[in-house]
Amino acid sequence: MTTDETETTTETDTERAYTNSELMVVAAARELESDDSVLVGIGKPNLACNVAKRTHAPELRMVYESGTIGSNPKTPLLSIGDPGLAAGALSIEPMRNGFNYYLQAGRLDVGFLGGAQIDRHGNINSTVIGDYDDPVVRLPGSGGACEIACHVDRTMIITPHTERRFPEEVDFITSPGYVGGREGRAELGLDGGPEAVITDLGVYRFNDDGELYVDSLHPSATRDDIQSKTGWEIEFADDLQQTPEPTDEELRLIREVLDPEELYTDQAE
Fold it and tell me: Is 187 one of the annotated active-site residues of the chain?
């Protein structure tokens, strides 16, 4: 190794003083606005919402599937039934009310989802891998994911980017994205749709045809990294950006306040 190579490696290691998981959380947080009402899950979506609320989106309203409305958790959360969600919440409702009166009534702006497969039109599969009647793997199913995808204005998808997660077409549509294109979603009578997909390699959005494209690359990722793990010829934005790195304050919130035990982010990653 030459002297120049040694200096380059050292500089890169120093600059990247955060993990892919932390960058995913921060990138997701930056998608949220202060007047948003968000249906939140545990894990990275919860971290993202709480980072946003403590930084640029103080009026963010967090709604959890367990029925807590306007939650403002002060401690790390272990599950959707964690008592920390109820402490300081504006209201505590039966889960049925949360779905009927808030989600299905169109009162929620954003919903976070993940899945076993996400295809080029943002359709999500969490039901089966393979044929439905004779699957290779049978997965947990929808839960409330289909309703979330159908009724919020903007769906955010957070997932690692692996080849098996990004086929050209999902084996089963559990939660509709743009189906076969934006017109396919409209034909189903659905408003809204997926807004962004955030992975450990980049941030992706949807073009006018409802097809996924790469909007920004994470600093440690390349075009080849993404293409090699994608089941179709994915497009890249003409003005492809680099995903902004986490700030010191965003990292402090994740590491010291929201996930000090590294339950959802691995600081040694």
Answer: no
